[in-house]
Structures are given as C-alpha cells and as structure tokens.
Amino acid sequence: MKKNQKIAVKTPLVELDGDEMTRIMWQIVKELLILPYLDIELDYHDLHVKRRDDTNDQVTVDAARAIMRYGVGVKCATITPTEERVREYSLKEQWKSPNGTIRALLDGTVFRAPIFAKNIRPFVTSWKRPIIIGRHAYGDVYSNAELPIPGAGRAEIVFTPEDGGPVLRNTIHDFAGPGIIQGIHNTDASIAGFAKACFTYALDRKVDLWFSAKDTISKTYDARFRAIFDAEFSTHWRERFAAAGIEYFFTLIDDAAARIVRSEGGILWALKNYDGDVMSDMIAAANGSLAMMTSVLVSPRGYFEYEAAHGTVQRHYYQHLAGKETSTNSMALIFAWTGGLRKRGELDGTPEVAAFADQVEAAALETVEAGIMTGDLLAVATPAPHNRKVATRAFIEAVAARLEEKRR
Ligand code: NAP
Ligand code: MG
C-alpha cells in the first residue's frame, strides 16, 4: 500500500468530545493528526457540559453504551459540574461526573501510565522505568451514601437479605451530638474483575504487580480485597508470573507509598478507588507534568476507553477566551487517540492501524526530544540550548510535520 493512501479502520471508533481547553486541542489533534491519514468512522458523542444539560445527561449514557457496542472509545476531558459550574453554564442541576457514570456502566480498572521522553526526567531520580497505577474504578467512596447526623442517637449499618434470611446489623457509632456518617460498598465480582485486569495488564507489560490496602485496620472490607487478589493469583497467575520473571506481592498502603519512592519503577501498583485517585496525581506530578499521563479504562467485559489523565485545563481556557496565547500540552490527548487506535487495530486484526498509532506517538516524542515543547515541559526538561516554548497549536503542527515526513 502506498503511504499517502488513507489507512482503513474497520470498526467505528467511539469519540467522546469534551470541554474547555481540551475541547480546543481535541479538535486540532483530530484535524491534523488523525483525519488526514485514516479512513475512519467516528461514532461521535458530544459531552460538552451544555449538551449534557440539554439531554439530562442521556448523552453520557449513550456514549457509554456505544463503547459497549463497538469496544473502544477515546474521550476528551470533561467538566464535572460543581456549584460554581452550575452558575457559570446555567445548568439545570449538578450532573454527576461523566467518568463516574461511564465507569459505573463499564465497570473496570483505570490504568495510568506516564509518557517517558528522554529529556523529561522524573523528579524522583531513582525512577528509571514508568510506575503504572491500576485504579479500581468501581464503588467505595465514589458511590457512597452519606448522612448528616443532626444530634444524639445510634447510627447503624443494616443488611436485609432478599431471601428473607436474618437481618445483619452493626453499630457505627452512638452519637452524643451532631456528626456525619458514610456507607460504602463493593462487590466480590467487581473486585475479582479488578484483580484479573491487573494481573493481565502486568503480564502483558512484563512488570511486577503490587497491591496495597489497609487490611490491618479494615479487617473485613480491605481484607476481602486482599483475599480475592491472593486467590486470583494462586489459581490463575502464579506459574505464568514465574515464567515471565515477574512478581506479585501485597503490602500495606503506607509501606507501599514509602517503597515506591525508593524503587526503580517498572511496577504496576494496584490501588483501591480513592487511593488510586490520589496516588495517580502524585505520580503524575512527580513525572514532570500532569499532561504526560495517559489513562485507560479496561473493563472485564472487554471494553476500552482511552483518555488523558488531566482535566479540561480551565485556567488556560480563560486565557484563550481573553485572546491571550496559550501553551497547553496535548501529549496525553494525542496518546489517548493513539491508545484507542492501537487497540482498535489489535481487535480488528489490522496491524497497519496499530503501526500508524506507533508512528504518531514517535512523532510526538521526537518533537519534545528535539526541544519543541509547551511551557509546562520547558520548566522541567533537561536544559538544552535548542529548547523552546511553543503555543498550543504550534506544538501539534510540529508533530504533524514530523508525522508527514514519516508517512512520505
Ligand atoms: P486540570 O484541568 O487537570 O488542570 C490543573 C492544572 O494542571 C492546570 O491549571 C495546569 O497548570 C496543569 N495542566 C493540566 N493539564 C495540562 C496540560 N495539558 N498542559 C499544560 N498544563 C496542564 O485540573 P482542574 O483545573 O482542577 O480541573 C478543570 C476541570 O477539569 C474541572 O471542571 C474538572 O471537573 C475537570 N476534570 C476532568 C477530568 C476528566 O475528564 N478526566 C479529570 C480531572 C478534572 P497551570 O495552570 O499551572 O499551567
Ligand atoms: Mg484525581
């Protein structure tokens, strides 16, 4: 096949558009790096916050269903409405986080891996290889039930079995005055899916797997996570891990946090939902920029959703609206597209699509390594005389120029 011919993508790719600065970059990436090279059908869903409001958030549910139909989605960052956002966009209500809604429908695990460029070194100098975070994307505090306690009284957790068996209850606290309570849950099926996704991903990337929780304090809840991981490992993975020369081990979350800092990296660190939320931002910042962190939701039912780990970059968007030049980093958005395309190619058996994704990533990395970068990276890059800061669009144009050379 001639290189200047468009590459055919067999199955539609589900596209979830988003908000603010990322929406602007998303469009440029698509226009310069994707559409000129691919003959592709994009199943487009506009998750702009106004559009979510207009459809009473039905558009988010439809997008998740489309991912379940086609298997692979790519998502731009979206605003999670707060009271301020409700005023800013005159929203009917404070809609839930789209990512929360999509995760609840697809279930699954979010893996976040930093993008390593030769001239962007992690702040933690011992890290030689990426630290990948595997975040359980279901339950716990993200789907909690909370109550403000107005005054003295007993708070309990109660379980009423469907089959009429004995009611289970436990006292949370005997309140003497006002306070707060929270109920959280998880399911064995979701935890097992999480464990399976982590073992699969670790073996695929040939990295050690660490799982950490706090089972010394949470003797039923966290202990169940640990037991399910242990059972999954001994039943299905012990031999395969040994053959691949990789390890699985469990350790307490605080011990793991301390060990990670002294490690060389090359680890998949599996974490419960909240721990993963926090630790992934810490790992991202330690790698130089939030804009160098990719994210993929892997569902146990075989669905994949790729996105950047960062948000909509609101501060830059307001600068843009004020007519000022911005220098916002599109690396993680580019890698969301390439991650989705590579997976699409894998599932469709079209290696040329996966190879194109590799080319786009190489073009993006070579651009940064040649010293052409956005402001966030210039601040953390290994100093070099040829380093220069470029504007948002100019960076993507520089990547496009390199890609064009590769495709000639
Ligand atoms: P953010 O968009 O991640 O940005 C926080 C700060 O990180 C920015 O102000 C900027 O720092 C830096 N940054 C992030 N991405 C960058 C990029 N690509 N290039 C250069 N700098 C980058 O977080 P936020 O401002 O707290 O949240 C904004 C909105 O995003 C919120 O409405 C939130 O709900 C939403 N959000 C969405 C997702 C998602 O859809 N996955 C995730 C998180 C947040 P400087 O200002 O110092 O330059
Ligand atoms: Mg977070």
Structural features, described:
The protein is 44% helix and 21% strand. By secondary structure, it is an alpha/beta fold. The longest helix has 24 residues, at 221-244. The radius of gyration is 23 Å and the shape is globular. The model has no long low-confidence stretch (mean pLDDT 95). It binds NADP nicotinamide-adenine-dinucleotide phosphate and magnesium ion. NADP nicotinamide-adenine-dinucleotide phosphate is lined by residues 77-80, 99, 290-291, 307, 310-315, 328-329, 374, 376.
Query: What is the assigned CATH homologous superfamily of the largest domain?
Result: Isopropylmalate Dehydrogenase
- The percent range for strand residues is 15-25%
Indicate the CATH topology of the largest domain: Isopropylmalate Dehydrogenase
C-alpha geometry: globular
Average pLDDT: 95
Hetero groups in this structure are: NADP nicotinamide-adenine-dinucleotide phosphate, magnesium ion
Order the strands across the largest sheet as they lie in space: 4-2-5-16-15-6-7-14-12-13
Architecture (CATH level 2) name of the largest domain: 3-Layer(aba) Sandwich
Structural class: alpha/beta
Regarding quaternary structure, what we see is: single chain
What is the helix tally?
Answer: 14
Helix content: 40-55%
Largest β sheet strand count, sense and barrel closure: 10 strands, mixed
Detail the poorly predicted runs: none
- Please tell me how large the radius of gyration is: 23 Å
Spatial gap, N to C terminus: 12 Å
**The number of domains:** 3
